[in-house]
Amino acid sequence: MKPFLFLGTRAEDDVAQQEYDAVLAGCGLRPDELVRVRLEQGPLAPVDLDDWSGVILGGGPFNVSDPEESKSPAQRQAEADLHDLAVRAVAADFPFLGACYGIGVLGSLGGGIVDRTWGEPICALPVRLTDEGRADPLLGTMPPEFTAYLGHKEAVSRLPEGAVLLASTDTCPVHAFRIGLNVYATQFHPELDAVAICDRIDAYSSHGYYEPHEQERLKAEARDALVTEPVRLLARFVELYAR
Q1: Domain count, the chain
Q2: pLDDT for the residue numbered 100
Q3: Using CB atoms within 10 A as the burial measure, which of 23, 39, 103, 140 is most buried?
Q4: What CATH number should be reported for the domain holding residue 236?
Q5: In which domain, by residue range, is 13 found?
Q6: How confident is the model at residue 79 (pLDDT cuts 50, 70, 90)?
């Protein structure tokens, strides 16, 4: 089998490792089958799509809608590298799954708009599949409604041309979409469990996702939530595209 490529953007070593470990476990792969590149550490080397079964992009604190003057050199470099890779993946209809940050990367292609209109606080919410989502080879293996962990400042307010809406919440119209047959983005995090989201709440306490006094409440609510289904997307992605 050709390996999958995992792209991360988290500068915090412990959180970055936890994210990779969670995706690795969810995919059911060995480390040599899910090769990690941390984009916050340097430019992305040339990627020959033919060397890989697919690409998985993790989340992180970068937002494409951040004011340009506030973006670090590392963020600008990661955005440029991911834009180029996303354009190539769409053109080739190459298997690509972007979680959370993937919405910004893919949602801004082809006339799409990503802005701060539909941000959601850190929480667990019901995600509902559209008719197209229920018929989709990847999302369609999920229940029509499932609870997922999420928390994001930006979201898609206009889908890219030709994109297919697959899932929504009451407070964010675009929670998953597909471009072509094989390029996917989800706003929710398929890899997260209660321990991991609580660790991220702590790690990103100064990043503007919540007010300081909300920290313990958010963690308590995350622990109380029953989130079991989203991780299935990772194994299904591997099942569909391993080659």
Answers
A1: 1
A2: 95
A3: 103
A4: 3.40.50.880
A5: 4-241
A6: very high
